[in-house]
């Protein structure tokens, strides 16, 4: 009742012109099949399932049924649920100080920034609350860089199949009409190119003098776990150097140890000008970061960008502990080892399944591509006690926590194989 009483609609009295507040109890309802209240905007097609608690790689629903979380909150809970070190950091910091604002010095922010600079090789960073906000900062850096080069309308090359967020600028950069539909006019200044196609980029370079930067995911997550040629990022670095462009990498999903390096670009021994990450950085506490180096490091000056909550003491305490745990428990090389186990196991078990087109991945970002749409598998996996999702309509996406044991990895392989075989046997 307290929540309902807080919901009002406005009515204007035609006689005394007073604004009246009336409780909107008549319109508020709950869908009994999903336990979803109509007071929430229907922006998500949620499954009829809610969780009460989590522990390590498991989530538990209100009937205490256990689910093996192979999605990690979409690459967020890399240390699993309720990791004791993160829980301790959050509770201790919350008991001292949660928020001050960036008007003042924030020691936790400085400590985290120094840690991130060390593990990334970058020079400095800006803290936000999400991946989309981190990408917004990157887009602003690119435009500022272009204007400093006297480009009147700076453009950023983005890739087909990309996903960079749902703010107006980041959805404009995203190559997904479902995300963009209904929100036109989109933000201008983005040039699309095929992913993993250097020839197309050379053509753009020859015909467009307004390019200031390239924004690309090292592995396309929402786009279907699309992995480019091994030297793709190296060639992008060379191309950007040749044309004086910024190389900006969206590592929202691939960062924080998921691919077997702290950042995916470290497999290629290169350094981008800008890299963004979020998701696994806070293990569930909202935080994002945009890191810069070289010619991008000193573009932002006081007043160019900001965030009320970005880099607050609580979020920074959690993120610092996440990085420290990843390093001290050697979970980053473990992600590579565990990913190889899952990848080889799935490839072996599914090699004779005609419905499977390919099993691919790097570290703990794995995609199983089927030759037809398979969105129904997300719900069907619940019966086997598995949490997965399907992206790009026909790619099962696995983003397990880095703390997964070998035994649970083998159990996951067996259950996913059973799930796909059942789906193939029972499809119309």
Oligomeric category: single chain
- Looking at the overall shape, the CATH architecture of the largest domain is 3-Layer(aba) Sandwich
Terminus-to-terminus distance? 46 Å
* CATH topology call of the largest domain: Aspartate Aminotransferase, domain 2
Describe the structure.
- With 428 residues, the chain is of the alpha/beta class.
- The chain has 13 helices and 19 strands.
- It has helices at 2-5, 72-75, 84-96, 107-120, 131-148, 168-173, 177-180, 198-207, 232-243, 313-328, 331-350, 377-380, 406-426, and strands spanning 8-12, 19-23, 30-31, 36-37, 51-55, 58-61, 66-69, 124-128, 155-159, 190-193, 211-216, 246-250, 274-277, 288-292, 356-362, 365-370, 386-387, 389-391, 395-398.
- It has a 7-stranded mixed beta sheet, with helices on both faces.
- Helix 4 (107-120) packs parallel to helix 10 (313-328) and helix 8 (198-207) packs parallel to helix 9 (232-243).
- The relative contact order is 0.15.
Could you outline the blueprint of secondary structure elements for this entry?
Layout: H1 2-5, E1 8-12, E2 19-23, E3 30-31, E4 36-37, E5 51-55, E6 58-61, E7 66-69, H2 72-75, H3 84-96, H4 107-120, E8 124-128, H5 131-148, E9 155-159, H6 168-173, H7 177-180, E10 190-193, H8 198-207, E11 211-216, H9 232-243, E12 246-250, E13 274-277, E14 288-292, H10 313-328, H11 331-350, E15 356-362, E16 365-370, H12 377-380, E17 386-387, E18 389-391, E19 395-398, H13 406-426
Parallel strand pairs: 7-17, 9-10, 9-11, 11-12, 12-13
Antiparallel strand pairs: 1-2, 3-4, 5-6, 6-7, 8-14, 13-14, 15-16, 16-19, 18-19
Helix pairs in contact: 3-10, 4-10, 8-9, 11-13
């Amino acid at each position: 009742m307290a929540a309902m009483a807080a919901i009002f609609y406005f009515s204007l009295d035609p006689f005394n012109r007073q604004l009246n507040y009336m409780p909107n109890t008549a319109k508020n309802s709950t869908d009994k099949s999903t336990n979803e209240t109509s007071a929430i905007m229907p922006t998500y097609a949620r499954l009829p399932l809610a969780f009460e608690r989590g522990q390590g790689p498991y989530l538990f629903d209100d009937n205490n049924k256990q689910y093996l979380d192979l999605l990690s909150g979409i690459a967020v809970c890399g240390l699993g649920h309720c990791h004791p070190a993160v829980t301790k950091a959050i509770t201790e910091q919350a008991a001292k100080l949660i928020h001050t604002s960036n008007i003042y010095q924030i020691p936790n922010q400085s400590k985290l920034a120094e840690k991130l600079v060390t593990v990334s090789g970058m020079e400095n960073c800006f803290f936000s609350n999400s991946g989309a906000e981190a990408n917004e900062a990157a887009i602003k850096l690119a435009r500022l860089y272009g204007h400093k080069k006297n480009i009147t309308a700076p453009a950023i090359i983005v890739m087909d199949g990309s996903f960079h967020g749902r703010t107006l600028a980041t959805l404009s950069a995203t190559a997904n009409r479902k995300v963009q539909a209904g929100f036109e006019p989109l933000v201008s200044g983005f040039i699309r190119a095929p992913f993993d196609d250097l020839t197309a980029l050379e053509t753009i370079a020859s015909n467009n003098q307004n390019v200031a930067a390239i924004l690309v995911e090292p592995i396309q997550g929402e786009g279907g776990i699309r992995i480019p040629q091994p030297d793709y990022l190296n060639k992008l670095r060379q191309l950007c150097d040749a044309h004086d462009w910024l190389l900006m990498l969206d590592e929202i999903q691939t960062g924080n140890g998921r691919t077997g390096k702290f950042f995916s670009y470290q497999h290629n021994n290169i350094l981008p000008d800008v890299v963004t990450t979020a998701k696994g950085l806070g293990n569930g506490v909202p935080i994002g970061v945009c890191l810069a180096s070289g010619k991008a490091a000193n573009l932002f000056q006081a007043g160019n960008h900001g965030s009320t909550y970005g880099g607050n003491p609580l979020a920074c305490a959690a993120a610092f502990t996440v990085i420290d745990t990843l390093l001290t428990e050697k979970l980053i090389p473990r992600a590579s080892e565990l990913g190889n186990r899952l990848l080889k196991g799935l490839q072996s078990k599914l090699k004779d399944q005609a419905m499977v087109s390919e099993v691919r991945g790097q570290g703990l970002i794995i995609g199983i591509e089927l030759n037809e749409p398979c969105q129904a598998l997300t719900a069907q996996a619940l019966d086997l006690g598995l949490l997965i999702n399907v992206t790009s309509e026909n790619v099962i996406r696995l983003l397990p926590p880095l703390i997964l044991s070998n035994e649970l990895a083998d159990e996951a392989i067996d259950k996913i194989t059973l799930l796909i075989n059942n789906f193939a046997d029972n499809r119309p």
